[in-house]
Amino acid sequence: VEVTGHASIGQRSLRRLRRRPSGEPPPLPHEIGRTGRLLLTILVVAAVTTVAAILIGSGAAAVERVDSAFLRWLSGFRSDPLSDVMRFLDGLASRWPLRILRWGTLLALIVVRRWRHLFVFVTSLIVLELVTYSISISVARARPFGVEILTDWNGFAMPSRPIASLAVTLFGMSYALVPAGRGRYTAKWISAVVVALVAVARIYLAVDHVTDVLFGALLGVTVPIVAFRWFAPNDVFPVTYRRGKTAHLDVSGRRGEAIVRATEDQLGVKVVEIKPIGLEGSGGSTPLRLTLEGEEGDLRRYAFAKLYAKNHVRADRWYKLGRQILYGALEDETPFQTVRRFVEYEDYTLRLMADFGLPTPHPYGVVEITPEREYMIVMEFFHGAVELGDAEVTEDLIDEGMELIRRLWESGLAHRDIKPANLMVQDGKLRLIDVFFVQVRPSPWRQAVDLANMMLVLALGSDARTVYAVAERYFTPEEIAEAFAATRGVASPTQVRSMIKRDGRNLVDEFRALAPHHDPIPIQRWSLRRVGLTMWVVFLGLIVVGLVLSNWAAFT
Amino acid sequence: VRRGIAALALVTVLGAPACQTAADVRPDCQGEDRVLTLAAQAVPSATLLPCIQGLVSGWRFEGAQIVDGSSRFWLGSDRGGVRAVGVELTETCDVTGAVEVIPGVDEAGTQRFEEPLSLSPAFSANRYYTFPGGCVTVEYRFGTNDSALVLQADLAISFRPRQELVDRLDDLGLVLCGAGAPDCADGE
To answer: Does B184 sit within 8 Å of A148, measured CB to CB?
Structure first.
């Protein structure tokens, strides 16, 4: 195999790389930030001291006397017009405004398909309601004493649940809907001002004590900030309104800097530019072209990289679960458990393919961005290559394609994702990329499907008869007949199916007509596991729907 | 295992608010005053506060809801069913259609009205207690026609004078606004 990659990567064993010492943070640490830590600390200290003071007899009376004295003093400033203004402000934290804000946010997140933010937002609401409710019945603090309460109330006073609900909604919206930067900063300030105004109103109306609103606000602000920073950090899941798949990670900002630093430390090369490429053809990772430090015009300056994060592992898990329910276990549907295993497997398949002399990118190694959460696999970049769909499909190219499948068969491998986006043409030579789905010792069905998909892709740029004639050099007519008997529905990648549809020719039938007759090979696989899994998913779905419906009032 | 834990956590988180509405906010006649104090704030004019004296075997407390203007709690029974008895304190109530009867010895200071609704197939009736500044409505909604359960429920429900709470809080330097207390600051 000709290695055309960057020289310094190939010679990295001669260089001493910088090893991250024990205790040093990784290139992109997973953290909640200084504000998050500060808020959590204040919350814990405030919660412990306040709850202890209220639950311990003499402390409780002292806190009540101080709070009540302040409210009585404040009541001296009451007037009818001012009370009307305060009642209006208090109404902002009532059920309907919150419902509108929450439902609006949910709908907006569904429209922009930002599922993770939706999940974190809903979870923040649920957790906050649960926590404030539990605290309120544990502390069981009465409403203020010695002063007339001027508005409606519900249940115990500590913490102020309306203030907490308003804060979690507004701050949750700021993190879920507003892009990071000046916009979010402004949104958070506006949220803080609104929460403060409503808090002042509730204190003026003597429906809450000062300590109730402070505790409520602290909870309502801390829960969404910590939740979003931990479960949907902006570096990994940025809020943007650009078009594109949600699986793709933002490689600018802190992550971009981390990639540069980590690649230099771990592979010994300096990245000068990171450019996302081929995003439309990739849903399972974030593909990147890395420009490495070197001479201008040196083709070895480039490397191809794929960034994997935990959401890709989850997507893989759901994809495989869906396949098992829809079709049964067509092949190995065991999901990966960690991102590390994800990249380790791809690195392994790249090296395996190279060992068998297949025209795949040469692997350069794996870069750790955030331990157990985010890794990048780096490999050779086919500079100047174009997708097969954009290249002229000559008889030589068809021959290479058929030979490639034959070699896969001989090596006991299946690529499992043969489509134009994964077949590149570089200097007239066929290259195969994206080996993540490669399987060792695949089923005969899968090998046959690889053959049919390759023939279909090549026929899209030529015609069925020519491809069939070349295929006969490498495969028997019975093998070709088996390939097209096995190829139906999901057996072909979506891109191949849509291109055939656009092309207009019924290429599958044309190939079947050229090959000997073969009974169709069914793709539905029934097993007890499939039935059980389906029933389990339906059962869980019903439980969740039932629980949500039965607790609807608690969340709206 | 992790998926099982996640499913369990989901069930716990979603189920918790529905499961928790209660045992911790029980308005007992003896012991902690926190719940009764809140009930007294809900209806500041009421001079008596309904509370739970004690539950006989087969009965259970099933939750409370105290909001500005009313204080409610429910009792359930293994024979009478879920929320077989509902007790609500309000400032006033409509006793039209109910018949006045002589109150029990432990109901001194109240006027008692009975309003039978049905005897069979399930027993259903309302009872009203009126007193200065308040009214307590007791709704009996049994799943059977066993009217003897009324006697068991009556053993559980009693009244506590608001003045006791006013005095106790006064000792702590706090004023429980409403009946029996000095005027509270309203500022307007």
So the answer is: yes
H or E element: which one contains A103?
helix A95-111
Nearest CB neighbour to A140, from listed B7, B15, B35: B35
| Angstroms from B90 CA to nearest CA on chain A | 15
A 89-148 → B contacts, CB under 8 A: 123, 126-127, 129-130, 133-134, 137-138, 140-143, 145-148
What pLDDT does A233 receive? 82
Query: Searching chain B, which residue's CA lies closest to the CA of residue A548?
Result: B14
Q: How far apart are CA B124 and CA B136, in angstroms?
A: 17
Rounded to the nearest angstrom, the minimum Cα separation between B40 and chain A is: 10
Specify the pTM.
0.69
Q: Is the pLDDT of residue A399 over 90?
A: yes
Both tokens of B99, joined, read 């018949």
- Write the DSSP symbol of residue B68: T
Within 8 A by CB and 6+ apart from A392, the residues are A461
Please, are residues A494 and A284 in contact by the beta-carbon 8 Å criterion? no
For B150-157, what is the mean pLDDT?
Answer: 90
Give the Cα separation of A35 and A222 in Å (integer).
9
**Cβ contacts (< 8 Å) between A125 and chain B: which residues?**
none
Q: How far apart are CA A274 and CA A276, in angstroms?
A: 7
Q: pLDDT tens digits, residue range A288-342?
A: 999 988 776 666 688 999 999 887 888 888 888 887 887 777 777 788 889 999 8
Q: List, as ranges, residues 142-181 from A with C-beta within 8 Å of B.
A: 142-143, 145-156
Rounded to the nearest 5 percent, the helix, strand and coil shares of chain A are 60, 10, 30
Q: What is the pLDDT of residue B26?
A: 87
What's the pLDDT tens digit per position in B68-107? 999 999 999 999 899 999 999 999 999 998 999 988 877 8
DSSP E strands, chain B: 48-52, 59-67, 70-77, 81-90, 99-101, 111-118, 124-131, 134-141, 157-161
Residues 6+ apart with CB under 8 A from A536: none
Cβ–Cβ of A547/B11 closer than 8 Å? Answer: yes
Beta-carbon neighbour count of residue A514 at 10 Å? 18
In this predicted complex, what is the ipTM? 0.84
* DSSP character string of A417-456: --SGGGEEEETTEEEE---TT-EES--HHHHHHHHHHHHH
B-chain residue closest to A540, CA distance: B7
Read off the pLDDT of each residue in A72-81 and give the average, rounded to a whole number: 91
Please check whether residue A432 is in contact with residue A404, taking contact to mean a CB–CB distance below 8 angstroms: yes
pLDDT in tens, A424-445: 999 889 999 989 889 999 989 8
Hey, are the CB atoms on A130 and B17 less than 8 Å from each other?
Answer: yes
Q: Are the CB atoms for B138 and B125 separated by under 8 Å?
A: no
